[in-house]
Amino acid sequence: MTKPLTAALTLQLAADGVLALDAPVTRWLPELAHRRVVRRLDGPADDTVPAEREATVEDLLTMRLGFGFAFEVDSCPVADLAVARGLGMGPPLPSAVQHTPDEWIAQFATLPLMEQPGRHWRYDLAYSVLGVLLARAAGKPLPALMAERLFQPLGMVDTGFSVPVRARERLIPCFTSGDDGLVVFDGTSDSDWLEPPVFPHAGGGLVSTAADYLRFGRLLLNGGSLPSDGSPPGEGDPLDGGSLPGGADPLDGGSLLSAEAIDDLSRDHLGEEQRNGPSASIFLDGEGWGHGVQVRLDPALPRRYGWGGGLGTTWYNFPDHGVTAVLMTQHLPPLGEPILHFWKTLDDLLGAA
Predict the structure, then answer these.
(1) How far is CA 51 from the centre of its chain?
(2) Interatomic CA distance for residues 185 and 200, integer angstroms
(3) What is the largest CA-CA distance in the chain?
(4) Is 288 helix (H, G, I), strand (E, B) or coil?
(5) Which of 35, 53, 126, 353 has its CA 20 to 30 A from that of 332?
C-alpha cells in the first residue's frame, strides 16, 4: 500500500513549495517533453498523434497520466514494449525493474502514451513516474526522502524499501495459489525485499507492518498530527537501506500534513466517466479516487478512504468514526472472500453505531 504514502509525501512537498500540483512534470522530468499518444490501444505503437497538453503532478497523483494496464483490449503493442523494456508491468517485485530511476525514466520516454493526459484513470505506472519526480524535486533518493519526511517522524521503524538484517527474522512469506494449494510467491530467506532495490517503486515497493501502517492511518484521522499519547513507536532504525541524518524523535503531537491536504487526499477527483472507465471499473468498482486512495461515494455506507496492495494487504480510514483498520493476508492476487468479509463486518459494526 505504497501509493497513499507517496501521495502524502507529494502533498508535503507541495506545501513546502518544493513542487506544485498544477506544474508540468517536464519541469523535473525533461525527458518527457513532446509526448505522443497512440491512436488506438490495440494499434501499432508508431501510429501516434501529439499529446494535447503536458501531464502535471496532479495527473500523476490521480493516475491520469495516460499509461498503465490496458485490460480492455486483447493486445496492446505499447504495453508490450513497456514489458520488453523492463518497466515493471506486472506483480510488484523489486527485482522486476533493474533500471536506476534515471534509466527508468529514459526508457519510459521512448514510449508513446496510451491516451491523452488527464483523460482517463489508468492503473498504475503514473506512480512509478511520480517517484522519480519526487526524488529529483527534493534532490535526494526516494527511500531517504520517505524515511526523513514520513517514516522517521511517525516512528514507522519497520517500513521501507528493504528489510535490514535486524528485522529479517520477522519477515513472513507471501503466497499465491497453485494447482495443489498455496505456493510461495516471495519467501523469507530469498525475499525480493532483503536488499535495497535498484528502482525504488513509489507505486508498490514498500515493506511494512500492520502496526506501522496504523500509525499512518492515525496521522490522517488526527488532522495531520499524531496525538500526544505516549504510545511507543517501536524500536530500531527506519528500514531505508541506510542511515539518515537528524536523529529526530518520532512525531509526538507535531504536524506533518495540514487538514486541507488531508481533505484533498481523501476526496474524489474523478469525473463520472473516469470512475467508470475500463481500468477504473476493475480497480475502483464504481468508487472514486483521491490522491493515492480509493474514496467511497455511497452515502448509505460509512464514509471511508484507503487502498489495497497487490500482495493481499488492505487499509481504510473511516473519518466519521475515528477508525483506521488494516488487514494483511499475504496472498497474490488478494483473496476476495476474507477481505470482503472483513470490511463488510466493519461496515456493519460502524453502520449500527
Answers:
(1) 25
(2) 20
(3) 60
(4) strand
(5) 126
Say which residue the cell 520516454 belongs to: 109
Phi and psi angles of residue 338, each rounded to the nearest 5 degrees, phi first = -65, -35
CA distance 321 to 213: 18
Q: Cell 466493519 appears where?
A: 346
Q: Are 132 and 187 in contact (CB under 8 A)?
A: no
Write out pLDDT tens, residues 229-268: 444 444 444 444 333 333 334 444 568 999 999 999 999 9
Distance from C-alpha of 163 to C-alpha of 170, rounded to nearest angstrom: 10
First to last CA, the chain: 28
Angle (deg, nearest 10), helices 126-138 and 2-15: 40
Q: Please name the helix (run of DSSP H) or strand (run of DSSP E) that holds residue 3, with its range, or none.
A: helix 2-15
Q: What is the DSSP letter of 112?
A: P
CB 277 within 8 A of CB 264: no
Cell for 164? 535490514
Handedness of CA 120, 124, 126, 130 (dihedral sign): positive
Select from 220, 80, 238 the least CA-distant residue to 156. Answer: 238
The CA radius of gyration of the chain, in Å to the nearest whole number, is 20
CA distance 353 to 349: 6
Which domains occur in the chain, in start order? 2-138 (3.40.710.10)
H or E stretch covering 313: strand 313-318
- 3 state DSSP class of 278: helix
Per the CB < 8 A criterion, the answer to whether 196 and 143 are in contact is: yes
Q: How many secondary structure helices (H) and strands (E) does the chain include? A: 12, 10
Burial of 253 (0-12, 13-18, 19+ CB in 10 A): exposed
Compute the distance between CA of residue 178 and CA of residue 175 in angstroms, rounded to an integer: 9
- Confidence at residue 353, expressed as pLDDT on a 0 to 100 scale: 73
**Are β-strands 313-318 and 323-328 bridged in parallel, bridged antiparallel, or unpaired?**
antiparallel
Q: What is the pTM of this model?
A: 0.93
**Contact assessment for residue 13 and residue 137, using Cβ atoms and an 8 Å cutoff:** yes
18 and 149 Cβ atoms separated by less than 8 Å = no
- Predicted local confidence at residue 92, as pLDDT: 85
